[in-house]
## 1
Amino acid sequence: MKKIIAFAGSNSSTSINHAFVSFAASCVSQCEVKIIKLVDYSLPMFSEDIEKEKGYSVELMMLNNELKAADGVLLSVNEHNGTVSAFFKNVLDWLSRLDRNFLDGKKVMLMSTSNGKRGAASALEYTKGSLPRFGAEIIESFAFPSFSENFSKEENKITNELLHLGFMEVLQNFEHQLLK
C-alpha cells in the first residue's frame, strides 16, 4: 500500500492549515496516511555556524526519515506577508542541507488556506516553485479561500459545495497518480 505523509507548514497550535491537511488526509481512501506536525521536530533557525558546530539534529534526521518512507506528500502551507512562514522556510532550509534531494521521487499535492479570498495563493505559488528543486513532483495544488466561511472544524468538512467538489476532484487525481 502506498504511504502518504501529511502536514502543514505552520507552527500555530490553532493552525487552519493543519485542520485542512487533516481533512484532506481523512478523505484519502486507497493509501495509508500519516499526519505529522512539524513543531514536533525542534529545529533552530538555520545557520551555517550551527550546522558546522553541532551538525544535524536527531529531530532533523527523524523528519527526513519520515519523508523518505513516504511515497507521497500532502502539504498545506500558510502565508505570512505574501510568502511562506519563516518557520516552514527554516524546515526546508535544514532538510535541504541534510539532503539536497530530500523529496526525490515524491509525488506532492500542495494546498493552502487562509481566511482571505485568495486562500494563501502566494505562499502556494512560492512552494510550487521551490519544492521541485528538492526532487518533488507536484501533481496537484489547491488554494482554499475564506477558510472560516467555507469549512466547518466541528464537522470536519468543506461547507461550500462547489469548493468541496473541486477539492475532491483534485485530491482524487492526486491519489490516482500516486497509485499508478
## 2
Amino acid sequence: MKFKGAVNRATQSRTVEWIARVGYPVNGLLHMLIAYIIARIAFGVSGEADQTGALATLAEQPGGSLSLWIVAFGMVTLALWRLAETVIGLHPGEHVNAHHRDVLVINRLKAFGLALVYLALSFTAVQFALGVGRKGTERAEGLSERLMQTGGGKVVLIGIGVAIVAFGGYFVYKGAWRKFLADLKVSGGPLITVLGVCGHVAEGLVLIAAGILVIGAVVLHDPTRATGLDAAVEALGKTQFGQTTLLVAAVGFAAYGLYMFAMTRFSRM
C-alpha cells in the first residue's frame, strides 16, 4: 500500500505529468513517418512500414542521432506512466485516492502491455542512435524461424498472432464506437473525433491483418509472413486495389499521428 501511495503521489505532480506527455508527440511523429513510408510503398518505393522503419528513417536524417535519443526518452516517459497505471489503475493523476480504486485486471494488463511496447521502442531507438540497429523484419523472421522448430514455439507464435488480432480488434472497436473520447479531458470536437476514428480504425485493421499473417505463417511454416506490421502492409499492397488500400492506410496512420499530437494537450493523465 505504501508503494501504491508513493506512485499515486508521484503521478499527481504536474512536472511528472508533463514529462510523461512528451511521449505523445514522439509517438505521433513515429506514426507520421510510418504513414510516409506506406505512401511511398504505394507508389513503388521500397521501405519497412513499421516502427523500426520509422526509426531507421529518422537515423538517416541530419541530426538523426539526437532525434533518436529524444524518441527513446519520450517512449520511456510513456512506459513509466503506463507502469504507474499498472500499479494504481488508469488515469492515476485524475484522483487523489486513485490507489484505493477497484480497477479491472484487464486494464492493468493492458497498461503493462503498452509499457513493454514503449520500452521495446525506446531500446530500439537507442540501438539506432548508437549505430547498431537493424531491420525489424530480420529480427522477426529470425525469431519466428526459431520458434517454428518446436511445437511449443508454434503455440507461442499462434498466441502472439491471436493477441495481435485481438489488439487490432480493440482498436477498431475503440475508434468506430468513439471510446477513445474517454481518454480526453475535453469533449473532443469534430476534428479530433475524425482523427481518432480514422486513426484507430485504420491501425486496428492493419494490426488484424498482421496477426492473421502470423497465424498463417505457422500453418504454412513460412517465417517471412510473421514480420508484423511490415508484412501486413506488403500483403495489402498485393491485393486487387493495393495502391488505393495502402494510401487509405497511410492516411489512417497519419490521422492517428495527428491524434497523438492532440493527446499531448488533451489526454487524461
## 3
Amino acid sequence: MSGAAARARRRVLWMNLLFSAGLALALPWFVAGALAHAWVPARGTLWTTHHAYAVRTFWFGLLGMLAPLVAPGVGLGLLAVVWLWCAARLARAWLAWEREEWITDPGRFV
C-alpha cells in the first residue's frame, strides 16, 4: 500500500472511531464530520468512497439530532430511527474498512 493510501486508511479509521463514539456523545460526531469534510481523500483509491460515505452519514445524523427540536411530538421517535440508521451505516463502514473494500454507491441510504 502506498504512503498516500496508508494515510487515507488511517484517516478513515479516525473518522469511524469518532463517528462510533458520536453515537453515545454528540461532540465526537461533530469532530468526525469536520474531519470528513476537511481531509481530502486519496483520489482514485477506495478510500474516496469512504470519505463520501462519512460525509453523507454526518449530515443525515445531524438532521436526526435536530429532529426533537423541530418536531417535538415525533422528534424522539425520529431520533431513535436515525440513530439506528447511523449505527447500521457505521457497521457497514467498519466492515468495508477492515476488508479494505470500496463502499459501493456511497450515496445510498444504507
## 4
Amino acid sequence: MKKINFSILIKLAVLVFLLATFFLQYEFLFATRIVLVVFVLTILTAEIKKDYFAAHKVAFILLNTIIMAALIGSILFDNSTVNTPANNRDFLIPVFVYTLMVIEYKDLYNKTSTENLS
C-alpha cells in the first residue's frame, strides 16, 4: 500500500477550508481569500513537484515573493473598499503566510542537502 503523505492532506484540507469560506462570509476579505487560495495551490504544487523546486529554489522564492506582494495589496484593497476601519488582525495574515513560506523553503533546503550527502 502506498504511504500517505500527511502534509499534502493538510494542505488539501486548508484549500477546502478556504474554498468553504467563500460560502460563509463572501463579502469579507474577498480578494485576500482568492490570493490565499493561489498561495495554497502554489505550496501544494511545490509539495508535489518537490524535486523541481528543490533544484530551482529561485523559482520558489520568486513565486512566493509575488504572492506576498499580491497578498499585501489585496488586504489593502479589501480594506479600502469597505467603509469600516481596517482591522489590525488582517495584517497578521502576511506574517502567517511568510512563516509558512519559510517552513516550506527549509523543507526544500533539507531535501536538497540530504540528497547531496547521499
